[in-house]
Prior knowledge:
Layout: E1 6-7, E2 10-13, H1 18-28, E3 33-37, H2 43-47, H3 50-67, H4 84-107, E4 112-116, E5 119-123, E6 126-129, E7 132-135, E8 138-141, E9 145-147, H5 163-166, E10 175-179, H6 183-195, E11 198-202, H7 214-226, E12 230-232, E13 239-243, E14 246-250, E15 259-262, E16 264-267, E17 271-273, H8 280-283, E18 306-308, H9 319-334, E19 347-350, E20 356-360, H10 363-368, E21 373-379, H11 384-389, E22 395-401, E23 407-413, H12 417-429, H13 435-438, H14 450-456, E24 459-460
Parallel strand pairs: 1-7, 2-3, 2-8, 3-4, 8-18, 10-11, 10-16, 11-12
Antiparallel strand pairs: 5-6, 6-7, 9-17, 13-14, 14-15, 19-20, 20-23, 21-22, 21-24, 22-23
Amino acid sequence: MSDAPRAFDAIIVGAGQAGPALAGRLSAAGQTVAMIERKDFGGTCVNTGCMPTKTLVASAYAAHLTRRAADYGVVLAGPVGVDMRRVRERQQTVVRNARGNVEKWLRGMAGVTVVEGHARLESADTVRVGDDLLTAPRIFLNVGGRANVPDMPGIDEIPYLTNVGMMRLDVLPEHLVIVGGSYIGLEFAQMFRRFGSQVTVVEMGPRLIGREDPDISDAVREILEVEGVTVRLNAECIQFSKVEEGVQVHVTCEAGAPRVTGSHVLLAVGRRPNTDDLGLEAAGIETDKRGYIVVDDQLRTTAPGVWALGDCNGRGAFTHTAYNDFEIVAANLLDDDPRRVSDRIGCYGLFVDPPLGRVGMTEAEARATGRPLLVSKRPMTRVGRAVEKGETQGFMKAVVDAETKAILGAAILGLNGDEVAHGLLDVMYAKAPYTVISRAVHIHPTVSELIPTLLQDLKPL
């Protein structure tokens, strides 16, 4: 065991999205930094989240588009096959390169010491990693989260997959049963259906992606069902049992067979923070009832000199919110720029095909404010670019405050919707009225050119 603790200006626990960038800013400011990582550099996004899943989505899209070749007048010989080993190799190459780049970046930073191992807080300024004791006046927790595994009947009796296990698959499941009808589950549902698996999605709620408006949920369900994904809703009593064919999922639904038998089961029922083995109590750091670290508007915890960034603070569950956490902390500490979490406008994407780009409030959330509203909705069948590409599923919708003319929220479910949504988001950050973009002249032929038209057609709700 070390004789004395090693002293630094700052300690960062976790090399996910916020940690390395913060290390870079602190080291550039002349500070000494200990960067602690117990497993994979880059965190969830690089290793088991965004990058590998979107790599798989791209492979699945290639297979899907190839099967549609005849729609475009392209003649192919023979059926389209998918080599899952090569699909996984491609995905792992992307992951290895990204992870290696993060580690190389960190190890090359002047003033940064990389420490590998599991960190536990012994006080608000002291961290133990194995036999090493590290101390600093500022500690930043960027420990991320992991898949939630609820205590459902029979779960301990069956083999099951989470997003981590899905990244290791190099065989095609005969029948993939996905428990959970939100973002992670639906992306895997579509991609594996396109790879060739039979897929069933089991959701406890009355509709998919329950945080979205019903018209979005219904449209996403239709997109998946057209491709052959089976959706089972209102599954109020899910339980599992092992059978010779694989795993049997017992489902209580208003319609359909009471049981679904699959070769593989994926649990996609939310995430939980990696905070239960950090020694937070020794540092006086409070968590909420779900285990998320309690932070204020500038991401300070209840312990002086300790901040929490990324998925572990419950203030955002996305790579982009984690990176923005870094920006907020760096601005406050290094730039004399008092940025706050509450300045952030909610936005996220659902990367099924076509994708959903969501910014600001849903229509239901806007209604709940009691404000007078203007709403416009336009099907993608009326977007020339979508028609030309033969991808006309979905629609775009915007909600505006009738009095202030401020855009409150929008959803673009359709071709390039994840990119198009940013034009609206930027206007919202500028605090400009919707008329600024409704009078803009956009390039033709694009999907974005329909945003002004959409806003010109606003009507009272």
